[in-house]
Specification:
Elements (H helix, E strand, L loop, with lengths): L1 E5 L3 H10 L5 E6 L11 E4 L5 H10 L2 E4 L6 H8 L3 E2 L3 H8 L1 H10 L7 E4 L2 H5 L5 E5 L9 E4 L8 H4 L5 E5 L5 E9 L5 E3 L3 E6 L2 E7 L6 H17 L4 E10 L2 E8 L9 H4 L4 H9 L13 E7 L5 H5 L4 E5 L9 E7 L3 H14 L3
Parallel strand pairs: 1-2, 1-4, 2-3, 4-5
Antiparallel strand pairs: 6-9, 7-8, 7-9, 10-11, 10-12, 10-14, 12-13, 13-16, 14-15, 16-18, 17-18
Helix pairs in contact: 1-10, 2-3, 4-5
């Protein structure tokens, strides 16, 4: 069995590492010769829309998946003529457009903040703050977003966000941000991981507590039900993440990601079967593995720069994952999952802050 991945970043790298013990070799397509997946997978150097590169990837792969949602439609169509493409084109298309995504949430009875389509500055001017203006496509890690708390911020906002089609979303007074990661196999079987609590700064995930403290079984069941509706409706195969806001006993869906997700990295050490292994199992037609949690843990992202490995290794319960990426402001270059409790993760977080962004 040969797995192809569009993208050669850290997600492709960890997918390849999870695939190898299963006897599955991985080939990744990426335009950068420094793509970090190249250390553990064969690398095809080509743009994501390059016909020759896509043909090479499809010809050497039994199944092709992606580490990002913005796969050009033409690329997915071309690959589908050569290998199985999982998840399917519809799931990718929905996740590429925040308006389509929100509409699907509403159709499936998934609670979500109120939203409006924005096509001009005149549309922007009609909005009543507080709210969030987002580009409908290509936004990630806080990019392409503007939090609007006062009417004065509406002026020129359409041009500020590139005159692209936008979506206006209600700014909800959530208590905390959560996410659930779930997977669906070729046979329709599903599994879900425990709900986790996420902490962001500047739009970038910094910290994930697994499981989310203080949540009852009802909230877990609600999150799983939301994820199952999406997986079933989209005839989805693979891992999907759903980002959520908690407001009391309500869970409101923010965004979905049709891929393995940063908030699920803790599953490598923290569960019986990691999100990466379950994605490989799903797309390759293998039975899904148990998502039972082995221990409480916290994941700390390393942003911009990494602490000295010796300093991290000296902290009990610190499991270090460096991606082989050069330091750069705002760039995710690794993560550390800590299984030794609050003292351990706080020590890692302090080191991460000292090393962040130089």
């Amino acid at each position: 069995m040969r797995l192809g991945v569009l993208g050669g970043g850290q997600l492709a790298r960890m997918l390849a590492m999870a695939a190898l013990p299963l006897g599955i070799r991985t080939t990744a397509l990426d335009p950068s010769p420094d793509a970090c997946a190249g250390a553990v997978a064969e690398l095809i150097l080509a743009p994501y829309d390059d016909p020759e590169g896509l043909d090479r990837l499809g010809q050497v792969s039994d199944v092709v998946t992606s580490e990002f949602e913005s796969v050009p439609a033409e690329s997915a169509d071309r690959l589908a003529g050569l290998a199985a493409v999982r998840p399917n084109a519809r799931a990718l298309a929905v996740a590429q457009d925040r308006l389509h995504e929100k509409r699907l949430f509403t159709e499936l009875g998934i609670d979500t903040p109120r939203f409006e389509a924005i096509a001009s500055q005149e549309d922007v001017d009609r909005m009543q703050p507080p709210g969030v203006l987002k580009t409908r496509r290509l936004g990630y890690d806080g990019k392409g977003q503007l939090v609007v708390r006062e009417e004065s911020q509406l002026e020129g906002a359409f041009e500020q966000l590139g005159k692209a089609p936008l979506i206006w979303e209600e700014l909800v007074p959530f208590e905390r941000e959560l996410s659930v990661v779930a997977a669906r196999g070729v046979d329709g079987s599903t599994v879900a991981y425990p709900l986790v609590e996420n902490h962001h700064r500047d739009g970038i995930l910094r910290l994930t507590h697994a499981p989310a403290p203080g949540l009852g079984a009802e909230m877990q069941a609600l999150a799983e039900a939301y994820a199952l509706r999406l997986l079933t409706e989209l005839d989805y195969v693979g891992v999907l993440a759903l980002e959520l806001f908690q407001l009391g006993n309500r869970l409101m869906a923010n965004e979905m990601a049709p891929r393995v997700h940063n908030s699920g990295h803790w599953t490598i050490e923290g569960t019986e079967t990691s999100q990466f292994e379950n994605h490989v199992r799903a797309v390759c037609g293998l039975p899904l593995g148990s998502t039972a949690q082995r221990m409480t843990c916290t994941m700390v992202n390393l942003i911009g720069g990494a602490p000295d490995v010796a300093d991290l290794a000296a902290i009990e319960g610190a499991h270090i994952h460096l991606y082989g990426k050069a330091p750069r402001r705002g760039r995710k270059i690794g993560h550390v999952t800590v299984t030794s409790g609050e003292g351990g993760w706080r020590a890692v977080a302090e080191l991460a802050e000292q090393a962040a962004d130089g």
